[in-house]
Amino acid sequence: MDDTRSSDVPLGSDNATSQEAGETPPLRVNRTRTGIHAKPAPFPEADLDDPALYFNRELSHLQFNIRVLEQALDPSHPLLNRLMFLLIFSSNLDEFFEIRVAGLKHQVALAREESGADGLPPRQVLAEISRITHEQVERQYHILNETLIPALEEQGLRFRRRTQWTEAQAAWVREYFAEEIMPVISPIGLDPSHPFPRLVNKSLNFIVELEGTDAFGREGGMAILPAPRSLPRLMRLPSELCESGYTEYVFLSSMIHAHAQVVFPGMEVRGCYQFRLTRNADLAVDPEDVSDLASALRGELLARRYGSGVRLEVADNCPDQLSRFLLTQFELDEADLYRVSGPVNLTRLMSVLSDVDRPDLLYRTFTPGLPRQVKSDVSLFTQIAQSDILLHHPFQSFSLIEDWLQEAADDPDVLAIKQTLYRTGADSPIVGALVNAARNGKEVTVVIELRARFDEADNLALASRLQEAGAIVIYGVMAYKTHAKMLHVVRRERGALRYYAHLGTGNYHSKTAKLYTDYSLLTANETLCEDVHKVFQQLSGMGKPRQIDTLLHAPFVLHDRLVSMIDREARHAEKGQKAQLIIKCNSLTEPQLIRALYRASRAGVQCDLIIRGMCCLRPGVEGISENIRVRSIIGRFLEHTRVFHFHNGGKPETWCSSADFMERNMFRRVETCFPLLDKKLAQRVRKDLATYLVDNCQSWELQTDGRYRLLDAGDAEPISAQETLLYAYAAKP
């Protein structure tokens, strides 16, 4: 298999490339296409519900993961970061099977198959997922074994296989196995009194073929050998055992495999093969059956480790009869079996990135900047009161928000703090500041979304910590996840109360703020802050929806207003006026919003969509979507900003939001969408959007047939949006 980087990814590929038409603008441009001025000729009526106009959500999600894998072949990324992308592909695929594939299988099992707007039944989607994933997993291991591992070895980083150990290394491994592994390993022989064990989701295990008679007279057969979960999956060899100039590692799987005979003394080990089972990890909490959400989730978290099987990974040399035996035990089909040429748990290799001191093989470090208006020697309350502050993470510092919250916690004039938390850590500076505020006697109310997927345990822990400090902890609304990113502060100033607020597109998580692109707005705008206050009251209390003047919030008005603003742009185009919209978000799947975009395109609106992941809209269909361009930016940082810009007949509106264009965000979550009322800040965000629209290094353009094509600078000047924004906003060395 050729591992040369392809500019198209399946389904289907032809290695074609494209470049931006027209003159190449300089870096950091302020220009986008001008839109349509002449009233277009009308197209005949079209059926916008036609399934042919929609891509399948799950297959689109899978294609995003493939675009991530493509980064492992991109030489513009440092070598260890290329390995990181390959491992992220594994991690993403794990979650894809745990949630999305598991959901489809559940529908099939219950004979309750539901098709989306694309019309594909779940059985057909599962078959296509299996076909694509088998191709891409094989390709992933080929990239690892034939491209990345040899390249890493050239740079002095070596992964030693069992057959490559020197005598000294083999002796060290033997001692390590005896002292660290053997005392905690628990082999399980399979016989009538030892049924097949219940194995933990995604755990590393071995199936062992045995021959002979044991101490109790039992004839050999098969055994299961779970790898101890307490041990690292990759061990660094002592430097004195490594070849000069090399850092060398051995896999736990290799160490266990090499010493399987020791685990079964007196028996002959005829074969030892690693495998890993992926289980359904979605949590099922019925609002009508739950009186205590926290207690219910604690029980579900235990059940998550033992959900029904959805995928089996085995070593590629595992005999067919053993693979079939495992499939039978896990009630899986041949289509669910993935044979891999290497470790079955690749994600655990991520530890190499932090273990190796090789900055030359990683992205260069940078110091996040701050807006020029921010002064270190002036209270942030004073500065926010003077003018709104907008931050673009990770290029600009998230620590400013942490500093402001800590200032609020210590400020005797601050009376109350309210905040939503979706994903954060119990030991984060944000939580620490809230704890300090509660201990300082302030009214602290925190809305914690316990059901943030795969962060449930952390959120339960931080809820306990906040409650112990005296904060009021609310778990939101049972039937709706609280996904909004809001912080509200009440402060007494000159005898009166004044509101301050933070609104963002991303989570209050200092780690992801260094990796995800997001916007943060710090404001004292009275109308905006009053709206934030009303949303918090709505979350903590009960009653009819409140009158909210400036914010758009889900599940009440956000969806209808977005449709209305898209339709408004269409009306401008129908009058022959300039009409343009730019939507930047993570996913676009909601059919009504897609139909609104189709209507806008038919009217002549220039629609630029920057959709990182899933996109169910089909661009470039004559008479339907030829005015729609969809691109996905994949690079060093995870694109996470949600920004919606409308030209609006020369009275532009720019909005930031916590919500994607998805059904769940519009109808089953509490979300906020806030306008940038400061014209300079709105112009700055539009400038950022324009930068993304001229990227010709990391942009993948969605084609009418569903393929993504990597835009190629060709002979033009290469433009990387992320690098441009990094240069524009980060602190200068």
TrEMBL record:
E.C. code: 2.7.4.1
One GO MF term: metal ion binding
Posttranslational modification: An intermediate of this reaction is the autophosphorylated ppk in which a phosphate is covalently linked to a histidine residue through a N-P bond.
Active site feature: H483
GO BP field: polyphosphate biosynthetic process
Catalysed reactions, semicolon-separated: [phosphate](n) + ATP = [phosphate](n+1) + ADP
GO cellular component: polyphosphate kinase complex
Cofactors: Mg(2+)
Domain Polyphosphate kinase C-terminal residues, every copy: 380-543, 551-722
UniProt xrefs under InterPro entries: PP_kinase (IPR003414), PP_kinase_C_1 (IPR041108), PP_kinase_middle (IPR024953), PP_kinase_middle_dom_sf (IPR036830), PPK_C_dom2 (IPR025200), PPK_N_dom (IPR025198), PPK_N_dom_sf (IPR036832)
SUPFAM superfamilies according to UniProt: Phospholipase D/nuclease, PHP14-like, PPK N-terminal domain-like
Sequence positions that bind ATP: N92, Y516, R612, H640
Gene3D superfamilies, per the entry: Endonuclease Chain A, Polyphosphate kinase middle domain, Polyphosphate kinase N-terminal domain
Domain Polyphosphate kinase middle intervals: 169-351
Sequence segments annotated as region (Disordered): 1-30
Entry binding sites for Mg(2+): R423, R453
Pfam families with a match to the protein in the record: PP_kinase, PP_kinase_C, PP_kinase_C_1, PP_kinase_N
Annotated Polyphosphate kinase N-terminal domain residues: 54-159
Family, as annotated: Belongs to the polyphosphate kinase 1 (PPK1) family.
Function according to Swiss-Prot or TrEMBL: Catalyzes the reversible transfer of the terminal phosphate of ATP to form a long-chain polyphosphate (polyP).
The protein's name: Polyphosphate kinase
Protein species of origin: Chromohalobacter japonicus
Gene: ppk
